[in-house]
Amino acid sequence: MAKKKNVSGAKKIKALREEIEAHNYHYYVLDAPVIPDSHFDKLLQDLQALEEERPDLITEDSPTQRVGGAPLDRFETVVHQVPMLSLQNVFSEDELFDFDRRCREGAGRTLMTYMAEPKIDGLAISLRYENGQLTRAATRGDGRNGEDVTSNARTISSIPLRLVGKNPPTELEVRGEVFMPVAGFNHLNDQQRINGEKLYANPRNAAAGSLRQLDPKVCANRPLSFFCYALGALNGVSQPDNQNDLLKFFKDIGLPVNSISREVQGVDQCLTYYEEILEVRSTLDYEIDGVVYKVSSFQDQERIGFVSRAPRWAMAHKFPAQEETTQVKVIEIQVGRSGALTPVARLEPVFVGGVTVSNATLHNAAEIDRLDVREGDTVVIRRAGDVIPEVVSVIKERRKQNAKRYRFPEHCPVCGSEASVDAGGIIQRCSAGLSCSAQVKESIKHFVSRKALDVEGLGSKLIEQLVDNGRIRSAADLFTLTQSGLSKLDRMGEKSAANLISALDKSRATTLPRFLYSLGIPQVGETTSQTLASSFGSLEALVESSIDTLEAVPDVGPVVAGEIRRFFDQNHNVLIINSLIGHGIFWDTTPTQSNPAGVLKNKTVVVTGTLPSMSRDQAREWLIEQGAKVSASVSKRTDYLVAGADPGSKLEKALALGVQVLDEEQLKALASSEVA
Ligand code: IVH
Questions:
Q1: Nearest residue by C-alpha to atom 22 in ligand 1
Q2: Are 235 and 169 in contact (CB under 8 A)?
Q3: pLDDT tens sequence across 288-333
Q4: CA distance linking residue 350 with residue 383, whole number of Å
Q5: How far is the CA of 268 from the centre of ligand 1 (A)?
Q6: Whole-angstrom Cα distance, residue 443 to residue 58?
Q7: How many CA atoms lie less than 13 Å away from 247 in the CB half-sphere?
């Protein structure tokens, strides 16, 4: 009896391991999870419980063993039988043309086929599989000698402990990149900060620092991931004959490859790929520092050959650096629309992330304290994608001896009113509200901006001038301006004055969502304005709403509800709204839904990823027309998630919560279907 129980225990353990591995494969390799994370965790717990009963059945490659084994004293040295090469770099099109010419000459072809891949900013690793089992993982080191990091690599969930398929290669050495996804990096640094430990400068350093921890349990808690892109050795199966097929082969045997790699032909297509990847760079959840072009055919690769430690058939085309060093000239305080005092470092101009940067945000007083940045300091600044440039760290070794610690002002630098820390305890605010001219200027700039009332030809400088010489004190006063009055201003001719008056006239006809957005209610952006407009239908209903009704709106939690209520409870805001309406601002008050009886009416919908035929903004507007409520985040209350390409974490969450997921085509089909 006891024996039978043991046998069935062993069978169950085997079946569970296979099930878990299959889910890992769907999740990491196919990028198409079939079960929610919570189910996966449950399977793992079940396996753990069974293994606790039968410790004799625990094997090194069991999915439960990813928690990390015993700490090491040091890493053993590994000699790479096939050296791990590095890549040559190009930074310009001319250099790329030279590379292509050399490849064509070497291979004796007129047009080369390349595999174009993102260049992941992590660290290279070589994994050895014997008969499908992971037996060793080694860092690149100097290319010949690396370090044995097997116990750490085993903790990385996207590195399979066993390959899939019945006939794995007898020997496989696969090379790829270990990296830390950006979200995981930010989370890790938050934790390090809370624990008073050293912060990592960037995801690459964090990945390297994590993989080189002697205690695998520490590495197990670091959010590392892996993509593979090259072969070291392969035996026991037939060899693919080009890079494209090699990547397909990796994927088939359960190794994760990057999904945005693509076969291209000639320099023109290389450049198109480069531009496309540069464009999506900031939306990827991992860092890349360029793209790599590899001659695809292995036979051609052999003909083209190597230069010292790098192949002549591959090239990294680097993106402009995202980090540079420069000097802080002064630290200044900017006063925002809602009075927030934001410190800004005025910099010696420096070329970074593809543009010249002369200002970087320092966020708040706490951040200045943390960095201990001082005027005159040499700093590392970073500009990633469209994100505002920020100061990453101070190079303390280059600090001048007399540099004084920065003292955050206790008063608003514009109106002199007292500054106080807000409820969150981080942001200093000027307490003067709309009697502070800086706040007035910023609120008017927001009011006329493109996504708000979109008044053409009314730039920041002009608004500042109008406020400074007392012509306007609120957004409503804009509508008291006259052509003759305007034409007397500096740099303002008759023609531009007339244009501005007609632009102001045109802006009177707006929509309720735009109007709500233009008011600049703290925490109420474009999406929330749209949701509020479609939930309440009229300005009056919103102005009178209670905290409870506000909180019942998708995406509106207690903080946002509180901000909205506080805004409408302030008399000066109501006066400005009434004055605007008095000056003829209007919007269509008939319900905007063109299909109000449709299936989507009152459904809460979230949009994510890149849709084939419309932008996310267009999709949201269309959904609102259909009577749907558009929300920014997935929750239990979400009815549908509309997912396009690269959907990210929203898709995972929707799957976990059992929210129905639609693509654009299914959404359109649903909208045109009959209501039951
Ligand atoms: S191929 C035979 N492909 O870049 C060539 N490397 O600067 C071996 N890297 O050491 C490298 N993404 O750590 C290759 N798609 C990619 C890559 C990549 C990142 C790293 C790798 C290499 C370094 C060279």
A1: 86
A2: yes
A3: 999 999 999 999 999 999 988 899 999 999 998 888 999 999 999 9
A4: 11
A5: 22
A6: 64
A7: 20
User: Among residues 11, 14, 42, 119, which one is catalytic?
Assistant: 119
| Order of strands across the sheet that contains 629-631 | 629-631, 604-608, 640-643, 660-662
Does ligand 1 lie within 6 Å of residue 316's CB atom?
Answer: yes
- Nearest residue to 464 via CA among 447, 442, 486, 487: 442
Predicted TM-score (pTM) above 0.70:
no
| Strand segments (E) across 542-652 | 586-587, 604-608, 629-631, 640-643
Token pair in block for residue 292: 């790599």
Of the chain, the end-to-end C-alpha distance in Å amounts to 57
Task: State how far the alpha carbon of 140 is from the alpha carbons of 177, 404, 598, in Å.
Answer: 10, 43, 59
Which residue type does 656 have?
A: A
Is 119 catalytic? The answer is: yes
- Cα 140 to its chain centre, rounded Å, is 28
Instruction: Report DSSP letters for 538-572, one per residue.
Output: SHHHHHT--HHHHHTSTT--HHHHHHHHHHHHSHH
Question: Percentage of residues in the chain with pLDDT exceeding 70?
Answer: 97
For ligand 1, mutation pick of 84, 114, 115, 119 (most atoms within 8 Å of CB):
119
How many Å lie between the centroid of ligand 1 and the Cα of residue 390? 28
Are 67 and 74 in contact, with CB atoms under 8 Å apart?
A: no
Residues paired with residue 661 on neighbouring β-strands, in sequence order: 641
Q: How big is the chain, counted in residues?
A: 676
Residue 181 CB neighbour total at 10 angstroms: 17
Tens-place pLDDT, residues 408-418: 999 999 999 99
What are residue 658's phi and psi, to 5 degrees? 75, 25
Q: What is the mean pLDDT of each run of 10 residues along the chain (676 residues)?
A: 61 93 91 86 93 91 88 93 94 95 97 98 97 96 95 96 93 98 93 87 92 95 97 95 97 96 97 94 90 98 92 95 93 94 96 89 92 96 83 93 94 93 84 90 95 93 93 94 89 90 94 95 90 90 93 88 92 92 89 64 88 84 82 86 85 82 87 67
Ligand 1 and 477: CB distance under 6 A: no
Q: Which two tokens stand for residue 566?
A: 């506080």
For residue 661, give both structure tokens: 């997921």
